[in-house]
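Try it yourself: sequence plus manganese (II) ion, in.
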Amino acid sequence: MKKANSRRDFIVDSTKTVIAVATGVVATGSLLESCTGPKKATGSGSYPKTGFIQEPLPYSYGCLVKSIDGTTMEIHYTKHAAAYAANLQDAAKNEGVDTGKPLEDVLARVSKFSTKMRNNGGGHYNHEMFWKSLSPTGGGKPSGKLLTGIESGFNSFDSFKTQFSDAGKNRFGSGWAWLYLDGDKKLKIGSTPNQDNPLMDVSDIKGLPVLGLDVWEHAYYLRYQNKRADYINAWWDVVNWGYIQNRYDSML
Ligand code: MN
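Structure, out:
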């Protein structure tokens, strides 16, 4: 159990706002009990499907503070990602999409829909995955089949980290870096602009996303300003490899 979120580190006021004294991060809600991160996904054996509604963040805003500050997390989740979800629901309503079916079905043929659907469907999918991909107890390296696949695809885990980081650093403007499984079941690294992702029929890279990194400035600028590389280096320390491994195992 980590001591960083022990009771003495926080002041709780009458509205249950929790203030992390040591870091200056302010978050609301259930920070006291939730910095242990999401429970390890049990692995249903099938590739996880995404709905059209924003799911709760699996930890509190300040819990990733070693890499991402709480204010950035709060704005990112409650403003940017929430807007993608709301605009996606609006586009789905206008374009006759059945929101009881997985979002993945729309992304696979997103060229048939509006730009609003592409931008917000991608935005919603990417962020839902991104939150689950992180954990206050993350970092380190994967194990099992994922580690084997990474080592055979990219020579070593360190080499993979360098290549993946470079994909994020070199993405011009806003976008995402990806580890994905291509049609030949090979692990590949690539990047997409804006909110596109490898599930989309319009994407230059195609396959199933294993791990995605948001390199939009809204993901890092409060702490890291223009220093995207510093954000990426710190981001590795909160990657939830248990979740990523389960995603990968479900694709094989
Ligand atoms: Mn984002």
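One thing you can check immediately is this: The mean pLDDT is 88.
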